Amino acid sequence: MIMLRICRTPAQLANGAEALSLPAALPAAREIAGKWGCELVPTGEMLVPPFGGKEGWLLLPDIMHRLQGILLACRQGPAGVPELLVAREEEATTWEDFLLMKLAHTLAYRLKGQLFFGEEMGEETEPLPVEPERFATFEAYVDRVLEAEDDLVKEIKKAWIYAHRKRAIR
After folding, report:
1. I need a labelling partner for 102 at 20 to 30 A (CA). Which of 85, 128, 131, 170 fits?
2. Phi and psi dihedrals of 75, rounded to 5?
3. pTM score
4. pLDDT tens-digit readout, 138-155
5. Sheet hosting strand 2-7, strand order edge to edge
6. Nearest to residue 138, comparing CAs of 26, 5, 29, 32?
7. Which residue intervals of the chain are DSSP H helices?
8. 2-7 and 82-88 beta bridge pairing
9. pLDDT tens-digit series, residues 76-105
10. What is the 3-state secondary structure (H, E, C) of 25-64?
11. Helix, strand, or coil here: 85?
């Protein structure tokens, strides 16, 4: 599973910042779902729960653009403080990759949280820059993913990314 975590800093918690929660995250998730043609459903409504049956919400793009969807969940972090998880399964469409980044960066920005890649926070883990503008559109996401590539490689990879937005290609 590919996962991004949104956490509060110790300083935020010391200054009385509200703990992160699913209710606090739902307005942004609903906005993204509406704008990008997705359903937002509780995981409990799924007959066969993906993501190991974790409690939370699933952002489900159109059936042709998804394999499992994007999980939005809350869990106790290493310090016993709630953190938000935004995750996708290993196999996903590039559209799901985009939505994962869109949702995680939007939530981190709006909730003023730190964004981390991966399951656990290690001593050397640095937070990712929170850049919702870099994931504002699918085109911006593709440009971000390919920013370090040379022109020819960039065009080849861009064609692959656009082709793999839909599940039928996989």
Report:
1. 170
2. -150, 165
3. 0.85
4. 999 898 889 888 888 888
5. 39-42, 57-60, 70-76, 82-88, 2-7, 114-117
6. 32
7. 10-14, 22-35, 94-110, 138-145, 151-163
8. antiparallel
9. 877 778 899 999 888 888 888 999 999 999
10. HHHHHHHHHHHCCCEEEEHHHCCCCCHHHCCCEEEECCHH
11. strand
